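Figure-free illustration: sequence to structure, shown twice.
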Amino acid sequence: MNPPDDLKRAIEAALFAAEAPLTLTEIMAAVGEAGDVRRTLGALADDYAGRGINLVERGGRWHFQTAPDLAHILRRDREEPRRLSRAGVETLAIIAYHEPVSRAEIEAIRGVQISKGTLDVLMEAGWIRPAGRREVPGRPLTYATTSAFLAHFGLASRRDLPGIDDLKAAGLLDPVDLAFAQLEVESDDADD
């Protein structure tokens, strides 16, 4: 086995010492942009694959994390965080799949009004953030997910969100919703 090169060691040290996950630009600034940092990150991720810790990229940010199959060893008794309400889960899902999305759009998709507290809880968790304002009358604020959302749910990017077929296969879709979706398809076919 060859000893690691200086760039690989520098990147490893920068990531280990970082208080939070680092972007490629932050890593390049830390190591002085010497060499092919992106390729070296890939090689480091390969080196750590199958070990007790892994180098992962989540939402464009790199960090070390405990190997998923060993997480049970590190669990400690701790206060269980509050679970999200059904409204919170639905709101988070709508934002994740439709971002950037305004409060009115969330309410239109859910079919009911949401309390400001629901958005506040999601922002306090660090899973959503304000994403600017729409260029329409009233200039409503829009919301989007954060890199903390991706990291918490183990996603590299929003493209990794499960599709409708994945959700059906996992049994996560309400049979009533599936029946309504089927009726819509059948009525569209009848109209043609």
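We now fold a second protein in the same way, so the two outputs can be compared directly.
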Amino acid sequence: MSINLSLLPSAEKNKIELDKQASYAVWQLKQAKAGPDLLISEAEKIRNQGERDFFEQAIQKYKRIMGVA
């Protein structure tokens, strides 16, 4: 069964994008392409508190998955 992501509500699409951004930010940190300040600056760009919380949870998830302290 395939799912067409373009049919999702905009809030769900935004969560998918925030999850991707969190994954990429942690990957950059792991590869030493950026420092920990990247995670803070990216989170500060998010105005909606619920979205910011989701982003920070995603950061923690990817830190565990990628083994980043």
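Summary for the second example: The CA atoms of residues 15 and 41 lie 18 Å apart.
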